[in-house]
Write a sequence for this structure.
């Protein structure tokens, strides 16, 4: 494989290549609506009824038949029927008004509703001014959902409003994909767990916690493989075992060109390396392969590189396996509030904030953009993309992903 920056593939090419190799999908289980928030629905959900099931009143007031009302003068009618929400509506006798409440089904012969504050009620009569129209304040049967209509498509993540929508058509249980099991490994003899003293030459393992958080946010089940030593045999044993237990594997570190980088060798010798190196900064040495047909994402070790490659490359693939139809996070366009001259051959993902300048939200990068500067990501509200071979000047439009879109 060539290492020249001109031949490196882009993020969208990488995603397309990876998605072609993904055969496995999460298993399906049935859950009640009370347990199904944030799950991905596994089959189209259709309504077997109209919502609302019958025409009903949008107001508290009085229902009339237009034939009983004079179009251009005051009409007085006695109240001959009372219908509250939940009542059987019945029939309005001719020449009378119906007392009706919001949500109550419309009685036969009623074809308009007038809110109570617009009529005058005397002891035994309702007085109506002209100015009404037939159909007013009546919500029609099936106005929200028609019988047979698809209410939720397969592959959609169930938000609270989808749960309510499913309940509104009487569905109580839904088929959803079970959480994917993802094995997570950090690599490197320099890593020490937080909470312990830090010996010379060592650093605290931060990627483990960033990635655990990302996987938890994705709703995945994590097999925490801990830290692999920089040893070929131990790396091989651990990754092969994980490929039998998990649906997918994520590693960080050990994918560049160093002598102590064993992840690539192990995948090459025991499975397939599909791609290595992307035209992005940070995250260039990203590796993707398969062991026992299970996808392995070898994220680069630098803390920002592993964060960015997880979000931009591994996450869409895991989402696809999780059954999600729309795997790309939404992005937005904002103007740059900065200048950047260094013209790179790689697309660059900057850690940025939106800041108000002259009444407009503009993109401002953290001053230190090194791939080891984790504080940049904590300061930032999201990522902005500077395309390859592009200089940025204030006012240029850039693509921006809020971190909140990845949750
Ligand atoms: N000769 C070259 N050297 C490097 C290249 C290159 O093209 N030629 N690429 C550089 C780039 S870009 C990156 S990114 C890194 C990626 O290297 P690895 O994936 O092999 O990662 P490591 O060498 O293991 O670690 C890199 C860096 O990150 C720190 N690290 C690793 N794991 C963790 C962790 N869990 N928590 C916190 N920090 C971690 C590690 O100590 C290193 O400082 O390679 C460059 N080198
Ligand atoms: O590509 Mo590395 O991830 O820039 O530091």
């Amino acid at each position: 494989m060539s290492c020249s920056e001109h031949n490196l593939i882009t993020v969208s090419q990488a995603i397309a290549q990876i998605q072609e190799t993904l055969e496995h999908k999460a298993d399906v289980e049935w859950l009640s609506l009370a347990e199904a928030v944030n799950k991905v629905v596994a089959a189209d959900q259709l309504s077997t009824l109209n919502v609302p099931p019958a025409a009903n009143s949008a107001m508290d007031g009085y229902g009339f038949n237009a034939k009983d009302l004079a179009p251009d003068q005051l009409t007085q009618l006695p109240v001959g029927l009372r219908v509250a929400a939940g009542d059987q509506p019945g029939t309005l006798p001719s020449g009378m008004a119906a007392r009706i409440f919001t949500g109550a089904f419309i009685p036969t012969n009623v074809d308009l509703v007038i809110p109570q504050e617009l009529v005058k009620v005397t002891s035994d009569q309702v007085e109506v001014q002209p100015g009404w129209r037939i159909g007013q304040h009546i919500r029609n049967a099936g106005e929200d959902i028609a019988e047979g209509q698809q209410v939720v498509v397969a592959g959609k993540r169930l938000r609270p409003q989808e749960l309510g929508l499913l309940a509104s058509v009487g569905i109580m249980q839904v088929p959803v994909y079970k959480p994917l099991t993802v094995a997570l490994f950090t690599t490197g003899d320099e890593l020490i767990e937080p909470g312990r003293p830090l010996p010379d030459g060592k650093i605290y393992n931060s990627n483990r916690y960033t990635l655990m958080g990302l996987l938890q946010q994705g709703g995945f089940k994590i097999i925490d493989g801990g830290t692999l030593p920089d040893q070929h045999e131990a790396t091989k044993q651990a990754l092969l075992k994980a490929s039998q237990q998990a649906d997918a594997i994520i590693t960080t570190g050990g994918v560049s060109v160093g002598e102590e980088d064993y992840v690539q060798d192990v995948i090459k010798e025991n499975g397939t390396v599909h791609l290595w190196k992307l035209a992005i900064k940070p995250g260039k040495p990203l590796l993707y392969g398969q062991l026992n047909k299970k996808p392995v994402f070898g994220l680069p070790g630098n803390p920002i590189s592993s964060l960015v490659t997880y979000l931009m490359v591994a996450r869409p693939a895991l989402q696809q396996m999780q059954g999600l139809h729309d795997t790309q996070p939404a992005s937005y366009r904002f103007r740059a509030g900065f200048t950047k001259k260094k013209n790179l051959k790689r697309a660059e993902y900057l850690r940025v904030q939106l800041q108000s300048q002259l009444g407009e939200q503009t993109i401002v990068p953290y001053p230190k953009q090194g791939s080891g500067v984790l504080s940049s990501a904590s300061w930032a509200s999201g990522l902005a993309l500077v395309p390859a071979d592009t200089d940025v000047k204030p006012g240029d439009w850039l693509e921006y992903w809020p971190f909140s879109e990845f949750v």
